[in-house]
Amino acid sequence: MKNYKQFIAGVVVGGVLLSGGNVLANNASLPSITNWVKYKIDGEYKALPNGYTTLNYEGHTYVPTRFIAEQLGADVEWDDQTKTVTIEKPEVTTGDENSNKEENSNNGEECSKPDSTKYEELPVSKTINGVRVEIYSVEDQYDYTKLYVTVKNTDENLVQLDQGTAYFQSELTKYANKDINGGVMYWKDTAWFKDIEEDKDTKGYIMLPPIPKDERQGKFYVEVFENGVNKNVMKYEFDIKW
Asked: Which runs of consecutive H residues, i.e. helices, occur in 2-94?
């Protein structure tokens, strides 16, 4: 990734300076919270998770180290004893190592067919019966994964998104909204409790259990139902990755 080391170095400086609360407290000018800053990483806008803040201090903008580094695929650790921020990029497996693994796993048996599914990066959208569902961002935390969704209704019937039907199926595991069962605050978004009228749209989120980094590729499923006479149910499936 271009200028990766230089960029991370700048982020580390910002993070370390921000941790020095005693130093800042002794200065006449204090840092200000900068809510209007947007984050665009590798051409994709990323929402700043709850608990993270962007600051402006003496003409410089300070960004959260962990958020930036993890978006770039790096691991972040804080050593409280040495007051050191450590950022490391995961090792890349070479072609020779991959070849050896394939040979060892084969053992004379036919190799399984590779996954031919074309996974799309966000945002993705699909329209059924005049109702458009778009997934435009994902927020990953240690205890949940949150997908940000917009539903646009151009049909005359009232519709609702049924977040209880939502799930993400990776190659290994199924992560369903119903599996959270209130273990996380606000695991149900009240935005989806209301009807969406014709030519109106609603934005909200869908909460899922935490999805590990190595499983963030798979099928996302959710249903939207009509509140009209027919009671039609529209089933949306997306092959996504992030």
From this structure: 4-19, 21-25, 65-71
